[in-house]
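lol ok so funny story. i was supposed to be doing the assay writeup but got distracted and ended up predicting the structure for this chain instead. priorities right. anyway since i did it might as well share w the group, maybe its usefull for someone
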Amino acid sequence: MTESESPQVRVAPLVVLPVQPGDPPFRLVEMHGELAGKAFSLQDVLAYAYAAGLKGADLDDPAVVQWLGGDRYTWHIRHWR
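and the output, tada:
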C-alpha cells in the first residue's frame, strides 16, 4: 500500500481528554494537536472553541470536538464499584 492509498485519519480541531483529579477536577484540552490548557466546565471548552476559530460550533459534532473518557456532561471522576 502506498502512502496515497493509506486511509486518512482526521482528528477534530478540539480534543477534550478524560477528567483529571484536582480540586476541582478538570479536563485537558488539545487545540489543533497542541495542549491548550485546562477546562473546568463546558463553558471553558466553548472558550477554547472560540479561540480555535470555531465560533458557534456544535460541540456534539465529532468533526469539531472529540470527547475522550466521557461526553460534554462528564466533569467528575467516575468511581466504579
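Residues 42-51 form the longest helix (10 residues). The longest strand covers residues 14-20.
back to the writeup now i swear
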